[in-house]
């Protein structure tokens, strides 16, 4: 969550061009023809049963101007759909690739492909890990792990309302400064709990339909939490699909892992170019904690509405409503000094929330884009994640994100089922020799700081 402001997003077309220059393979579909039919002709001529087989390597020559994505052994032309994709720009990173695992992980329903005619076929690489996890996903779905427990959510909303009432009461009904500052702590937990609920709406966990879920995200994320829920979702979906991915030639990195002031992995080193960044990275193990706590909230609030130039009008309305209620609350404080301290306390306490989102990744596996596409998607999700051990009664505090491995494997799974899902995932990982990392919060923090220290000590400025 803290990782924002990715400064250079790659165009998937660049990868396509590289590919085109490096291979000369006759497209199989025009083997018996002296002149290739146009893509439009192909689209209208073929039926699914007539589609021709070709591999990802052949795509550039077969469809030089089209963007194809592979799902369940079939290529789909998404050229005109990329800009309309409800999940945002993530689809561009799977052009010319087999996107089956990530497609199903996001709970896309069959109707998404119902009106799309495949333009070709390919043979999916058999991977026993993918097969095992896909089976587990089906089994857990059958057991109801993906269904919304509305009663449970009524309880969550009641907690959110109670926190808001406590914050307002402490600010408006008491004169003592310490009551006001306790109100700031209540406000921080109010923001934190809203952040969790926004996260779940923006994963379409509740209604399973983004056209409905987005309004929940807008309310809990933008109006209550105070950040652009849609902007955050675009980055978060990229984070899920391309966790800890670095693509240096296209200057792309998992946007929620990017900060201009620290380098978690040597694969990122080439992205840092200034002397100021050099000095910041050398001391990153000292700056990490205070930056996340004291600057985390301010940064995402600023980025989501200013740097990113959010254009969705609903977001601006939600943002205005957020500042109306917040300023009304702050207006009850007696001095500007108390206003500043109140907001600083609330932001800093809520800053701990940012830890929960990034601590699970920083010391884990990072990969270049080409390495990622060669691995089992499920294995990669486990190895780029770490769980935080905590007792059941602390689940409210971590918001399900302590089961980060399970959440990344099954992003649309209900929060209140993640703990039970871990009991299935861990043995499956052991069975397939996949390291399953789970430790308490202090160990996770220690591991992360040690990792940042070592990475910083290896850092050298790229002479380019
Ligand atoms: Zn994550
Ligand atoms: Zn998520």
From TrEMBL:
Classification via SUPFAM superfamilies: Cytochrome b5-like heme/steroid binding domain
Origin: domain of life: Eukaryota
Coiled coil: none
Keywords, sorted A to Z: Heme, Iron, Membrane, Metal-binding, Transmembrane, Transmembrane helix
Database matches in CDD domains: Delta6-FADS-like
Domain spans labelled Cytochrome b5 heme-binding: 43-108
The UniProt record lists the keyword Iron: yes
The keyword Transmembrane helix is annotated on this UniProt entry: yes
Transmembrane regions: 150-171, 177-194, 215-232
Record region (Disordered): 1-24
InterPro entries reported for this sequence: Cyt_B5-like_heme/steroid-bd, Cyt_B5-like_heme/steroid_sf, Cyt_B5_heme-BS, FA_desaturase_dom, Fatty_acid_desaturase
PANTHER family attached to this UniProt entry: CYTOCHROME B5 HEME-BINDING DOMAIN-CONTAINING PROTEIN, FATTY ACID DESATURASE 2
The protein's name: Sphingolipid 10-desaturase-like isoform X1
Species of the source: Priapulus caudatus
Source species taxonomy: Eukaryota, Metazoa, Ecdysozoa, Scalidophora, Priapulida
